[in-house]
Amino acid sequence: xxxxxxxxxxxxxxxxxxxxxxxxxxMPLKYVLDKPAMVENIGMAHGLLFIAYVLGAIYLFKPMxxxxxxxxxxxxxxxxxxxxxxxxxxxx
Length: 92
Description:
By secondary structure, this protein is mostly helical. Helices cover 78% and strands 0% of the residues. It has one domain. The chain has four helices and no strands.
């Protein structure tokens, strides 16, 4: 159980970082400097990490004894910048 929690913790951190990179570096490069390559690369990584985050949260729902409200907050935090860092601190 502890190993699965640790893996989800790392996925949460990486998902949060990829989201911030996408929003604050890749997107401005695409629209200001007309360089879309970073959005394609970081966007793909972020998409995969997002899916891993959501599946990991659902997988840990029962073992971590989260209720539906906590699971909803954890899933909603994946849509907000800095949200996964909040989850990592509060729920893990």
